[in-house]
Write a structure and sequence with these properties.
By secondary structure, this protein is an alpha+beta fold. The protein is 49% helix and 10% strand. Bound molecules: 2-acetamido-2-deoxy-beta-D-glucopyranose (NAG). 2-acetamido-2-deoxy-beta-D-glucopyranose binds next to loops.
Length: 627
């Protein structure tokens, strides 16, 4: 975001983007593929938590055979629902058999009892088992003749293939493609090939068609990484590649993640999945690029006033864009928080604070020069640290101390009717975070659903990008800014990478301590819905690590050019908005025929891949959307 000679094309591209968004909104919005409900045949019970009425994936078939002289009832729950009551599924008559279609995303707990509705104390037997997709099982419930006890036996009837095979195949295809590209590149590099092509006068054709496209910004600097270059920073390819990498995962996840919801989808409540990683990374990367653009602007003699104007303008554009993408227009129900809105606020706060604390000259400290030299990325910015840590402290205080009517103070759970005593926590979803959104924005203007709805059966809306979480996302941006300062203040690759790794360990250890290295049991569990402190520290730890790796491979040793993520990262706003707006239309999405993981994964990978191709095209024609 450093280039300035593109303002006119920027304006044009924003207009283009906005009009395409408005156009699609006017069309009446995309029609989501809704599967028609399947009426249960007699003797078939369904417990499908990540997919409704679609039994072509993530479903196991369990036949419960009642060998008792009494009617029995089946209760069921997924282990993903932490400390949840079992749900009554149905009953089985004397000497009869019923089919249970159960979700295989997580282990399932099933209980057989003699009375109809839980809770009950007439439990016959129970089991917790991770059933396999397309597995056939029979659960025989019998009584032991001699004693008064019960004899329950689960028999596996078939051995279905691993549900992850499509993922392995996809990874294999990508590995093959990467290998092929490397081989072709090596071949083109070798002198023998050059001589051969020269002979036929073809070399120019090949190198212009197949060679890496010349990058106007960083090509000239490729050899100067190791050189101290305080006054001439270059565009970091690794940062663009990392941004693109996050964005590609984000698009894939938003497009449906091949139906692998437990693995690629967002966490139900506590926990960390692949989908949970990308948004905080994105915010963190934005923090890194704040320093890049700042020093570029300051170098060009842009005044702080002008920069402040730029910051505010950019924040407003991002916020507005976010509201429109979230489906804006209707004033009684439009959603105020959102991904771009969160990015806008975090950017506004962190960039403004940084603007007023950024140094032009080196300050003297009454400590030895050597210590100062090593810690100048911290010492020069101690006031910034105090401000940012107070945002973090405010988040913790509000989360744990704000009284929420009808709910325990400091409650961090998902609420809903299944947890707590007699549904006393029913409306407590998200504790203070949710309450703040409810009071300030009202439930009409936040995300109407929320990830715990399916499994915890919550009824109150919960916005994963709510107001309280903005405080932690500001801190997350600031941690990215720290990485940017390291890039700016330390010129040698070794100094930079060591610092990234120290931050990686530091944030990782603190996060681990806060969540007790467990999913549910720590003081502050890792939670994407709340943007808990441990959540941002965990993801920041990974971000420091990944940037260190990307930087080492791409910018220091030139072992990889960052292709294809690099192109996506150069045009993140265009690709993000485009993918959000067009995601439900062909060719990015179509109505699945077989609805298997293989088909869904292929569809989502193609949809995501198209955006990589589109961003490559935009790169070749020098079309960059900047806000
Ligand atoms: C939760 O809210 C609903 C709807 O406003 C209300 O009917 C219910 O009683 C509330 N539950 C509790 C435990 O307060």
């Amino acid at each position: 975001m450093t280039d300035e000679n593109m303002t006119s094309s920027n304006a044009k591209s924003i207009v283009l983007l906005l009009s395409s968004i408005l156009f699609s909104t006017l069309l009446g919005g995309p029609s989501h593929a809704v599967s028609s409900p399947v009426t249960n045949e007699e003797g078939v019970y369904q417990f499908l938590v990540t997919h409704e009425n679609v039994i072509s994936h993530d479903t196991a078939f369990i036949y419960v055979s009642n060998g008792l002289e009494e009617k029995i009832s089946i209760s069921i729950q997924t282990t993903e629902c932490y400390k949840c009551k079992l749900i009554f599924l149905g009953s089985v008559n004397v000497r009869e058999l019923v089919e249970v279609q159960a979700d295989t995303s997580w282990p399932i707990t099933m209980e057989i009892s003699l009375k109809d509705e839980p809770p009950n104390n007439a439990t016959v037997c129970s089991l917790t088992h991770h059933f396999k997709q397309n597995g056939n099982y029979t659960w025989y419930i019998n009584s032991k003749k001699s004693t008064d006890t019960f004899d329950c036996k689960l028999v596996t009837m078939n051995n279905p293939p691993d549900a992850f095979i499509p993922i392995y195949v996809t990874l294999g295809i990508f590995a093959g493609m990467a290998l092929f590209c490397i081989l072709v590149k090596q071949l083109l590099k070798s002198t023998a090939t050059h001589r051969f092509l020269n002979y036929f006068g073809m070399e120019r054709v090949v190198s212009s068609d197949l060679g890496t496209p010349a990058n106007p910004v960083s090509e000239a600097d490729s050899n100067s990484i190791q050189r101290p270059s305080r006054d001439k920073p270059k565009r970091l390819k690794s940062l663009d590649a990392f941004r693109g990498f996050s964005l590609v995962i984000m698009i894939f996840v938003n497009y449906g993640n091949g139906g692998y919801k437990a693995f690629f989808g967002h966490s139900t409540w506590n926990g960390l999945t692949v989908a949970d990683l990308v948004f905080p990374w994105f915010i963190w990367i934005m923090g890194v690029s704040i320093t890049m653009s700042f020093y570029a602007l300051l170098r060009h003699g842009v005044s702080r006033r002008e920069m402040m104007y730029k910051i505010v303008r950019r924040s407003i554009i991002l916020f507005g864009l976010g509201i429109i993408i979230d489906g804006g227009i209707d004033f009684s129900t439009f959603r105020v928080p959102g991904v771009l809105q969160r990015i806008a606020i975090s950017y506004l706060v962190v960039a403004t604070v940084h603007l007023f604390s950024v140094k032009h000259k080196v300050e003297e400290y009454r400590i030895t020069r050597a210590v100062y030299r090593e810690l100048r990325d911290l010492l020069d910015y101690w006031h910034e640290w105090i401000i940012m840590l107070s945002f973090l402290a405010l988040h913790v205080c509000l989360t744990f101390l704000l009284p929420v009517p009808g709910c325990p103070t400091g409650y961090l759970g998902p609420g809903g009717p299944l947890v707590g005593e007699n549904g006393s926590l029913e409306n407590c979803t998200g504790g203070a975070a949710n309450y703040i959104d409810k009071v300030i924005l009202t439930y009409n203007h936040i995300y109407p659903r929320g990830t715990p709805r399916r499994i915890y059966k919550t009824t109150v809306p919960h916005d994963p990008e709510g107001i309280l979480g903005t405080l932690t996302s500001i801190f997350m941006t600031f941690l990215g800014l720290q990485a940017g300062k390291i890039f700016h203040l330390f010129s040698f690759a070794r100094d930079r990478i060591i610092r990234f790794l120290i931050w990686c360990v530091l944030t990782g250890v603190i996060a681990g301590g806060l969540c007790g290295f467990s999913k549910e049991e720590g003081i502050i569990p890792v939670n994407k819905n709340l943007w808990s402190v441990s959540f941002i520290l965990t993801t920041a730890s990974m971000a420091f690590f990944l940037l260190a790796i990307f930087y080492y491979l791409i910018d220091v040793h030139h072992l990889w050019t960052g292709v294809p993520f690099y192109f996506v990262g150069m045009n993140s706003i265009a690709v993000y908005c485009g993918s959000e707006v067009l995601g439900d239309y062909f060719p990015f999405c179509w109505k699945p025929v077989y609805n298997t993981h293989a088909e869904l994964l292929a569809m989502n990978v193609i949809g995501t891949g198209l955006w990589v191709v589109i961003s490559y095209y935009m790169y070749t024609i020098n079309f960059f959307v900047k806000v």
